[in-house]
Amino acid sequence: MRVLVAPDKFAGTLTAVEAAEAIAAGWRRQAPDDEVVLAPMSDGGPGFVDVLHASLGGELLAVVAEAPQGHEVPATILMVGDTAYVESAQACGVHLTGGKLGEFGTTVGVGRLLLEAVNAGATRVVVGLGGSGTNDGGAGLLAALGADADVSLDVGGIFLDGVTTADLSIARGMVDGIEIIAATDVDNPLTGLFGASKTFGAQKGLDEEMQVLMDGILEQWAAATDRRLALEPGAGAAGGVGFALLLLGGRRVSGIGLVAEAVGLAGRAREADLVITGEGAFDFSSRAGKVPAGVAAVAAEALRPCVALAGQVLVGPREMRALGMDAAYSLVDAVGEERAFRDPEGALTELAARVARTWSG
Predict the structure, then answer these.
(1) Exposure string for 131-169, b = 16+ CB within 10 A, e = fewer
(2) Which residue ranges traverse the bilayer (predicted)?
(3) CATH superfamily of 2-41+264-359
(4) CATH number, span 48-256
(5) pLDDT for 72-86, tens place per residue?
């Protein structure tokens, strides 16, 4: 049989590429006659560039970005023809902040990555959003492109307090004629109950009081720029980087949808007998634009069964089927939590071999 392996990253342990290779190794060990096709996936967050490079090829450009606290960090831009793929997490990811003090983090580095892409000759820039540790409404990104305001834009969201006017003309001129696409797994607005601060603030180190404060500050930022765009789906992605890209004339698309189209996932699924996906934690949040749900939807359209291999499976059979899965298998249940974290690659290979005994042939 032909097996299509299309997992997301296992956050903190394996990249999507590593996870796909581990699953393939285990499957081939148990069912050597099966054809295993790899299509590692991403929803726009960490690993976005690596996943697309694995499937599309292209040229990787090594650049230097600015981290949320201002120090330099290495980053990579993928050029495929005149399209550049940029991963915002490389410059503002939560792994760079340790999940702390998100109100002080800046997205200046994301703006500089965007400029590097334009200077490399891109006429279309796709920015993957997700896994951010910042909450500045994308103000730092715009500052890197020349935006100005009556407060400092490049030192973190907390310092937007009191903003009343902003001039984005230079920033917009820097990307004039460039198609900008924000690829994200969330459709949250910038502010409000489901906005960037209240929905994602806790994972960036914002306590409840700071979440309320930052939501009010981002309301001020929206009023100074474009309150209508602040309500658009995806404006709250990556702490408001989505909003900044909308202000520059960009448009938001589903991250998993974009990657699926780029790697030809639908065609590959139609040629397969079984589709395998996976991620670190398979829970009910997986339904909202995440890789497993996106892959399952593609498998369903192709009338192919889909199973998930995950670090943890936190949904029951009924919820699993609602997410489009025929079955889901937990790494922690199979090998224990200690082994799953100590040797994630070996443990995932072992789990895949067990699953192959059930599904192969």
Answers:
(1) bbbbbbbbbbbbbbbbbbbebebbbbbbbbeebeebebe
(2) none
(3) Glycerate kinase; domain 1 (3.40.50.10350)
(4) 3.90.1510.10
(5) 999 999 999 999 999
